[in-house]
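Methods: example folding runs. The two proteins below were folded one after another, and each record is reproduced exactly as written to the output file, sequence line first and structure-token line second.
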Amino acid sequence: MKMKILVWAVVLAVLTGMPCAAASKKKPDEKAAPGANPAQPAPAPAANPKLQLLGVEFFKKRGLALDKSQEGKMELLLLEYNKEKIKQEAKIQYRELEFLEMFNQSELEYEKLEAKFKEIAAFQADLGSFRVRKLMEAKQFLTAEQSEKYKKILLKIFFQ
């Protein structure tokens, strides 16, 4: 169990770019990464891939032909989707930071780490369910042919 938590902590550290004792064993001659020293802030990222939002143009570029009425409905649906997606991802990122903070403490409390990890997994599952549920609402105003095309586009998004 301890090894499983350690592995997940390292994976989270690598994915989030957070420094962690177990994930960053450097040789003495290696230079510190920008931002590793609080006196030297990290350069701002060019774009956060997690914040890429869905819009009507995204679906049009992939061959989903919508009339003006459908475009308006889709725009509203995607606005609601994007707002909630950002909120949910922020909750997950906050808990990932809490996990890494706990992991970087000198005394590891495995029960607390495991509980935090399960909390993160639950939020990730909720986000996945929300995505499917919200994006499938578009079927209410799409034709059968459009609906099939839309489902194929969503499958590519979900399983990239």
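Second run, written to the same file directly after the first:
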Amino acid sequence: MHMINEFKNTVNDNKFQELLDFGKIISYICWQLSITPILYWSLACFYHTQDRNMIIKDLDFLVNEDSFPELILLLGQYDISYELKPWQSIVISKDDLKIDIDSAERYLSPRSGETILTQIGDSKFNILNIISLIDIYQEAIDNMPLNNDFQKQRWLYEKKLINLKKHVS
């Protein structure tokens, strides 16, 4: 198992730890249903690049969409707030923390779902492989509207994509 023992970022270090703790709860709920959540987007990018300046604002998991109904039922039993979004995602929130559960069929297929079991602090996650993560960022950039509303998001994705490509062996 790969380990990252510390994350130092004065901008959001406390929130990062709160996100990891919340992510552990959501992962545990998934495991109760025999669902293996795959962590991707920013935290996976952080893992692959070790960019200590990266700000992690939320966590993003991939799960099979056919598990959404059971997952929603169990979230309700744990009194965890969620919203099912039309773009095949469940947005889970607690105070100012947010976790997105996205459809693996929509966002991962046909890429490899190969993961790396990783421990970040005292939290264990299955993190998406770097090649599939690069493909996901590239596809997001390619499909993003070119208008000004998405300029900042495009720039952030492009920056992460360049950084990820530097770490492909």
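Comment on the second run: The longest strand covers residues 97-103.
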